[in-house]
Inverse folding.
């Protein structure tokens, strides 16, 4: 075991001169805790594997599930390759249109992750900036905002997402795919940003009375710069934890909407769409159409949730 | 004290008005009910007559006042899809959703509390750790996937439980119940379990956390020091003190049970309000959407109000300061 000085947390044996940002990160408490937690490593591995599979889907997938010309109805309803009627070309079997499940799954995960990350990014941007301003400015704007948050948090997010998505689809009935995705992402982040706004507002209220803020003010730092460069970095810790957990939630929410038939456009099936399609074939005994996308969804959601849980505990000094 | 209650009431009414405005604005922006009802081939005169009958030619504030006045007595007009009274449709579907939610809430509490106590008492043993790990799975699993897995295992493979509908129901006045027949209970089993899983894990984790807290407290240590048997200390002292927060949270979750039933009802073709809402969103049937939204808002506002008032009764400190909202969060 290496010795660590209690004051800085830096490793004594490491050469102090070569302290680039990477080696600083390697020597941080967070990294140390990470490499010593088998569960976190496993979760990170699974999450990265899913992310990699999704990112490189066009290169990894054995078939192109969107190329209608290459679909062959004679290849439909095939079980996974290891079962009696399975074929090696279709590792996880095919669906009713002869689409390769493995390829559809990789492309589906790509869409699920894209929508999930998009929704969280939008929520973080809106939530953090609103929370910062509300916490720093205070007054009537703050009061109104927090009332609004109370109202929004008292409703289940999935219901509001359902409604916003439903309304959005009616407003743009002939929306092309891109717009449909935009509506979906908006629907998912419609209530989510509130959580970030609340968290950031709370920490900003604490931070703004601290000495470094007073000092920066005395030196004449402008308000915008003060918020961005001084307060913001100090309130981001909880946001990081929240965002990690919310990525999992957003992916599940998107899958739920798609399962209910109001999520992504049918031309770009996500994991939820695949599960909905497969659900119709459960009674015919064709379990693979729905089970494999389901497993992929659970793997992604579980690993992200585990990472979020671990991050929360690791960043919480009281639990060390 | 009185001012606190009044303030909460005013807030509740404000929230309902805001939601009502949202519901009302649906009418302005979603679809054109006239062309939906009459189809493409209607003449202009037919359109105008229907527009007049539906009151769609009046200015928006007048329509909103009209809407609120009718909503107060539960009148949301005619469903665009089925041409029937929305209130009648909802009254027909309400018992199914309420029964499903009640059964799953009972299931969540009845299973969640013992499991949580078990996980807390044996916290260093592998079986309790396994329970906690499985509970994390319960939080991560999407509701619809749980439903599909249960259908696959218990309906398709084992054939124990039916996978859709309410089964045989009994009419009790205006209330149709499925809980008086064996067939009804067999039908409610899988949907109720699906809906309960999330709440169950929530209750279980909460009970465990509160129990661990209570087991560290001075009064439990004192009870042990007095030589009371473990059973009395664990259940008489520790568990009893964890029940107040647990029941509060469970009560607060009732609303989300009703809301989450949207998904469960779709998976199991359960003829409740949730599936009515989904159909309304897909159609789009604005009066039904608006009515459902207002009803859910009312349920949530009432639950929150009840919890706030209960806090005043339970916690005497709040009677002096009168701002329980701040301390609770």
């Amino acid at each position: 075991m290496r010795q660590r000085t209690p004051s800085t947390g830096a490793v004594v044996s490491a050469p102090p001169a070569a302290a680039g940002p990477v080696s600083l990160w390697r020597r941080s408490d967070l990294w140390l805790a990470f490499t010593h937690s088998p569960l976190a490593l496993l979760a990170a591995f699974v999450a990265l594997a899913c992310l990699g599979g999704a990112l490189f889907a066009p290169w990894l997938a054995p078939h192109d599930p969107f190329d209608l010309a290459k679909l062959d109805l004679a290849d439909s309803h095939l079980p996974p390759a290891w079962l009696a009627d399975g074929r090696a070309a279709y590792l996880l079997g095919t669906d009713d249109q002869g689409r390769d499940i493995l390829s559809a799954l990789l492309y589906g995960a790509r869409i699920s992750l894209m929508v999930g990350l998009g929704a969280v990014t939008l929520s973080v941007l809106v939530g953090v900036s609103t929370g910062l301003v509300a916490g720093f400015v205070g007054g009537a704007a703050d009061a109104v905002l927090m009332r609004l948050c109370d109202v929004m948090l008292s409703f289940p997010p999935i219901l509001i997402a359902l409604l916003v998505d439903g309304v959005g689809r009616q407003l743009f009935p002939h929306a092309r795919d891109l717009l449909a995705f935009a509506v979906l992402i908006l629907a998912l982040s419609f209530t989510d940003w509130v959580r970030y706004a609340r968290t950031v507002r709370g920490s900003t209220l604490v931070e703004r009375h601290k000495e470094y803020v007073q000092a920066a003010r005395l030196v004449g730092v402008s308000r915008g710069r003060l918020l961005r460069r001084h307060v913001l970095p100090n309130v981001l810790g909880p946001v990081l934890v929240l965002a990690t957990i919310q990525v999992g939630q957003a992916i599940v929410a998107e899958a739920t909407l798609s399962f209910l038939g109001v999520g992504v456009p049918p031309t770009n099936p996500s994991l939820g769409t695949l599960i909905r399609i497969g659900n119709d074939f459960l009674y015919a005994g064709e379990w693979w159409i729905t089970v494999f996308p389901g497993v992929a969804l659970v793997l992604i959601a579980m690993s992200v949730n585990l990472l979020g849980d671990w991050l929360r505990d690791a960043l919480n000094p009281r639990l060390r | 004290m009185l001012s606190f209650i009044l303030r909460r009431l005013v807030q509740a009414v404000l929230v309902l008005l805001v939601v009502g405005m949202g519901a009302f604005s649906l009418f302005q922006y979603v679809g054109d009910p006239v062309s939906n009802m009459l189809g493409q081939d209607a003449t202009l005169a037919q359109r105008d007559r229907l527009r007049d009958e539906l009151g769609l030619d009046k200015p928006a504030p007048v329509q909103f006042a009209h809407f609120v006045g009718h909503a107060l007595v539960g009148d949301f007009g005619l469903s665009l899809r089925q041409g029937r009274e929305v209130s009648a449709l909802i009254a027909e579907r309400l018992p199914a959703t309420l029964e499903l939610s009640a059964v799953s809430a009972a299931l969540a509490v009845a299973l969640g509390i013992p499991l949580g106590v078990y996980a807390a008492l044996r916290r260093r043993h592998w079986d309790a750790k396994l329970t906690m790990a499985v509970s994390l799975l319960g939080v991560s699993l999407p509701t619809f996937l749980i439903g599909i897995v249960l259908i696959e295992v218990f309906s398709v493979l084992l054939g124990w439980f039916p996978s859709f509908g309410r089964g045989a129901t009994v009419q009790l006045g205006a209330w149709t119940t499925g809980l008086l027949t064996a067939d009804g209970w067999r039908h409610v089993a899988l949907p109720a379990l699906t809906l309960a899983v999330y709440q169950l894990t929530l209750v279980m984790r909460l009970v465990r956390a509160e129990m661990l807290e209570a087991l560290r407290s001075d009064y439990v240590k004192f009870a042990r020091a007095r030589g009371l048997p473990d059973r009395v200390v664990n259940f008489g002292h520790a568990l009893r003190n964890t029940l107040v927060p647990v029941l509060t949270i469970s009560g607060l979750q009732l609303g989300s049970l009703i809301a989450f039933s949207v998904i469960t009802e779709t998976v199991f073709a359960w003829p409740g309000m949730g599936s009515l809402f989904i159909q309304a969103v897909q159609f789009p049937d604005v009066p039904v959407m608006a009515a459902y939204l207002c009803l859910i808002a009312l349920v949530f506002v009432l639950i929150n109000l009840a919890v706030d008032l209960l806090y005043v009764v339970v916690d005497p400190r709040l009677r002096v300061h009168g701002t329980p909202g701040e301390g609770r969060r």
